[in-house]
Amino acid sequence: MDKNINDQENCKDTRIVIDEADREKTRDITSCIAFVVCFLSCIGIGIMCIVVALEQNQSDENNMIYLEGQIVYVFYLGVCILFCVGICLFGALCAKCCGDFSFICVH
């Protein structure tokens, strides 16, 4: 009888460990999906800003790209968004791959 009680307790402990492992995997997958969605959204917004600005381009013989007025800020916004995404990716990759030297990229 005591053996059955001990087996049941061990079984419960094993289930708890498996449940925690499943939760951890689910949390990792959710984090990965959130990262990809945010990453693609930022890239899409940056490219959209640049495309909208270039549609207002007033090129002539001397200038291939000639933007004037408020649309210049939209162009710069798109470039800044893409630049920030690039910097964040570089920092994340550096922190992931460099190991001991990751504090340089993070700080």
Taking all Cα atoms into account, the compactness measure Rg is 26 Å
Beta-strand percentage? under 5%
Task: Give the total of domains.
Answer: 1
- SSE order: HHH
Mean residue pLDDT: 77
Span between N and C termini?
Answer: 60 Å
Structural class: mainly alpha
Q: Helix segment count?
A: 3
Q: Helix amount, in percent?
A: over 70%
Count of DSSP strands: 0
Largest sheet: none
Global geometry: elongated
Poorly predicted runs of 5 or more residues: none
Description:
This protein has 107 residues and is an all-alpha fold. The protein has one domain (2-106). The protein has three helices and no strands. It is elongated. The protein starts with a helix and ends with a helix.
Brief characterization of the structure:
The protein is an all-alpha fold and 107 residues long.
Structural descriptors:
107 residues
Chart the SSEs and their pairings.
Blueprint: H1 2-55, H2 71-97, H3 102-106
Helix pairs in contact: 1-2
